[in-house]
Every structure is written in C-alpha cells, then in structure tokens.
C-alpha cells in the first residue's frame, strides 16, 4: 500500500524517514505525471493529475542526491509551507519520498511566474503594479506575523493565477526568526543592505526591488559585468535614482513607496502590513479590481446579450480580489510582525 501523507489545514507534521517504502510505481499508480511547468537548480515541477478524482495539481520532483549538504532546504519547505494556509501562498497538499526523489504535491498555479510576465511585457502600469504589491504584501504580512522570513523573494518565486493574482512559492530558504540572523542567502539583485544581520525586513526590501522593476523594467542597482561585490556595494550605499525618461510618467506617490521600501535602514523601512495599507497600494488595487469587474460584466453581456449572472461576477471578483482577512480570522491591519 502506498504511503500517502496528506497535509491537513494548518497542521504540522514530521518529515518522513529516508527509508520510505514508496516507489516510483506507487506514485505513478496514484498520479498521472505530465508536462514540465517549471524547473530550478534542485527540482523540476510537473503538472500531475490524481487518478482517483481527476484533480489537476502540480508536483515538485526533487532529486535527493542534489540536496546532499542542503537537506535543511527540504525540511524547511515541508515544515513551513505545510503549516501555512493563505490565498496568496501556494498550498502544499501532500508529499511522498522514494529512495532517490521527493515529490511535493501542490495546487497548480497555471499562469507561469512573474519573471516570465516581466520578460514578456517589460514593465507594467501603476494600477497592475499596485495590485501585485498588494498581493505580495498580504502574503508577507501573513508569514511575518508568524515570525517567518522568506529570504528569497523574487519574480521567479511569485506565481500568477489565471485571474492575474500572485501567489508566493518556494520556501526552501525560509526560516523562523526570533532574533537577528547572520546567514548569507538569497539572490544578489534582491538582497537587502543589512544581509549580514537581518530580520523579516529583508523581504520588504526585495518587494521594493520588484516594484521598481515592475514600474520601469530594470532593477535599481546594477553592476558592470554582473560583478557581485560591486552590486553589494551599490546596495549598501542605497543611492536610489529614478532615471529619465523611464520614470518620467510615474507618479510621485509610486516613487515615494519605492523609497519607503528601499530604505537602507531596516528600522525605518515600511513593514509588509504598512505597505498593504499604503494609500497608493490601496488606490491602485481598488482601480484594478473595479476594472476587472467592469470588463467581466461587459464580456458577459456581449456574449449572451443578457444581464450577466451576478453570482458568477461575485465569484470572479472574489478570486481576483485580495483577501481581507487571514484564515485564522485575524484582521490584516491588526497583525504586528515580531521583528527583532
């Protein structure tokens, strides 16, 4: 009988031992594994379908030999992601382990990732950028309230739903922090200036980098020939420039938020909660959601020649709209991150 471990709602669990009796044949008996939808240094992500109920999911397949010396990354992803339940975070549904591979079964987010979207479009208008910042801020506020720092926030780890919402993924580098951390990790472009001693504020810095890129199409700190030492020095100096003509059409409110997110001093940098409640973010997100509802109404009316089904509109708006309350019913604006 196949060992099948389901993740219950916000329930912690132990990592299965390495001598699991599950085989590839067992997994293929339970799932039909399909096309590749993503890959990374240690894993490939494929679409899969449960054979019993035909539910389409995603499975992250990790070659365990590539994790030698980095086993903690798998431990982190399972223990942290398995304990989280939020509409802006990809859910881990089950995990299985053979002698050679680990299989992490997650909900399928079929719109690709934000890096692909940026590569295709170059930059985004303020409305869409504000909505994306709202989505990410919700996810960050939720994990920061639990003293979890993601440590690898970047467009590649933000997945896009069919309703153009973002979901945070890949918790391999995440950890619980109750005091300053001294481990160097993350992707250089998005690393905060206090990287040698940091807290959850590093995620907000990375969000500021992402917002800058969304609005103009390139990062604020760039080194020649991809020299990482030079890049770190530029980041530490924190000299932010809004280059003309790229930033000429961008509002002062948007620039102000970028400055507040990219404060070199983490003690004066905005928190995820403050970012979520920022007037520009709230205004841009509201405009985008209203526009999405209007577009849906017009499409339905044009297609049927009749008044649109209000229940369907509400459902679409709910799926497009950012969640106002986290699953444990704690109001987003009342949650205070436990920064060191």
From TrEMBL:
It holds the Pfam family Pkinase. The keyword Nucleus does not apply. Keywords: ATP-binding, Kinase, Nucleotide-binding, Serine/threonine-protein kinase, Transferase. One of its GO terms (molecular function) is protein serine/threonine kinase activity. Gene3D superfamilies: Phosphorylase Kinase, domain 1 (3.30.200.20), Transferase(Phosphotransferase) domain 1 (1.10.510.10). SMART domains: S_TKc. The keyword Transferase applies. ATP binds at residue 60. SUPFAM superfamilies: Protein kinase-like (PK-like). Residues 31-281 form the Protein kinase domain. Belongs to the protein kinase superfamily. This is Doublecortin-like kinase 3. It comes from Cyclopterus lumpus (Lumpsucker).
């Amino acid at each position: 009988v196949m060992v099948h471990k389901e993740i219950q709602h916000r329930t912690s669990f132990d990592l299965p031992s390495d001598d699991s009796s599950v085989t590839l044949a067992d997994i293929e008996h339970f799932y039909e594994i399909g096309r590749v939808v993503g890959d990374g240094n240690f894993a490939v992500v494929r679409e899969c379908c449960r054979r019993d109920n035909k539910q389409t999911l995603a499975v992250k397949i990790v070659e365990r030999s590539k994790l030698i010396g980095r086993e903690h990354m798998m431990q982190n992803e399972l223990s942290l992601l398995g304990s989280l339940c939020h509409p802006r975070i990809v859910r881990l549904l089950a995990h299985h382990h053979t002698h050679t591979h680990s299989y992490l079964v997650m909900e399928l987010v079929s719109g690709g990732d934000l890096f692909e979207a940026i590569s295709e479009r170059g930059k985004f208008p303020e409305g869409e950028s504000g909505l994306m910042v709202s989505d990410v801020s919700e996810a960050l506020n939720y994990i920061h309230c639990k003293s979890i720092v993601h440590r690898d926030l970047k467009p590649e780890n933000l997945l896009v739903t069919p309703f153009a919402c973002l979901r945070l993924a890949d918790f391999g580098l995440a950890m619980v922090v109750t005091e300053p951390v001294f481990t160097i990790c993350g992707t250089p472009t998005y690393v905060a200036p206090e990287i040698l001693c940091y807290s959850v504020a590093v995620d907000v810095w990375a969000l500021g980098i992402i917002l800058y890129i969304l609005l103009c199409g390139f990062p604020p700190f760039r080194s020649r020939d991809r020299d990482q030492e030079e890049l770190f020095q530029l980041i530490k100096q924190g000299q932010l420039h809004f280059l003309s003509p790229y930033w000429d059409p961008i509002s002062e409110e948007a620039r102000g938020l970028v400055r507040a997110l990219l404060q070199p001093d983490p003690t004066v940098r905005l928190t995820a909660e403050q970012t979520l409640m920022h007037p520009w973010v709230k205004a841009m997100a509201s405009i985008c959601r209203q526009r999405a509802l209007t577009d849906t109404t017009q499409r339905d009316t044009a297609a049927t020649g009749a008044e649109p089904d209000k229940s369907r509109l509400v459902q679409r708006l709910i799926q497009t709209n950012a969640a106002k309350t986290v699953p444990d019913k704690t109001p987003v604006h009342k949650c205070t991150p436990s920064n060191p």
